[in-house]
């Protein structure tokens, strides 16, 4: 059953490499139904992408951010045929940007924490893990919004034996 669901919701995957400009930059675009199983499938794809980019050290934070953003889009967006939820993973020097595009114009709001509530903590986690996050109108002319988060590689201090 799970295999059938996975095959049914198999993402559309494209790797885009912009022309010129020194260091290779990549974008991975995937499209998903709002089915809950797609969150796990999206996490698998992001994990593979981060490994391919040599950015596995961002994996834990990136997977949690993706899970929260994609779950919000799945729960709060009505997706009509041909209007899937889209994720984009963008690699820039030292930064990974995770975007979730959906057809809802309603922007997410960071809420105060209610200790008795069973939900409403997702964006608090995103804000804590990401260097920056936000929501914008889609730039492709499609209805809705893009919610994004950027995670940076941690700064490294030189090793004690490094004299340079």
DSSP summary, beta strand count: 6
**Oligomer description:** single chain
Compressed to H and E, one letter per element, the order equals: HEEHHEEHEE
End-to-end gap: 57 Å
Shape, please? Answer: globular
The value of Rg in angstroms is 17 Å
> How much helix is in the residues?
25-40%
Q: Which class best fits the helix and strand makeup?
A: alpha+beta
How do the strands line up in the largest sheet? Answer: 1-2-3-4-6-5
Spans of at least 5 consecutive residues whose pLDDT stays below 50 are 1-24
Strand portion:
15-25%
Count of alpha and pi helical runs: 4
Biggest sheet features:
6 strands, antiparallel
Q: Provide mean pLDDT, rounded.
A: 79
Question: Care to describe what's here?
Answer:
There is one protein chain. The chain has 164 residues and is α+β, with helices and mostly antiparallel strands. The chain is built from 4 helices and 6 strands, in the order αββααββαββ. The protein has a 6-stranded antiparallel sheet with strand order 1-2-3-4-6-5, with helices on one face.
Key traits:
6-stranded antiparallel beta sheet; 30% helix; alpha+beta; 164 residues; single chain; globular
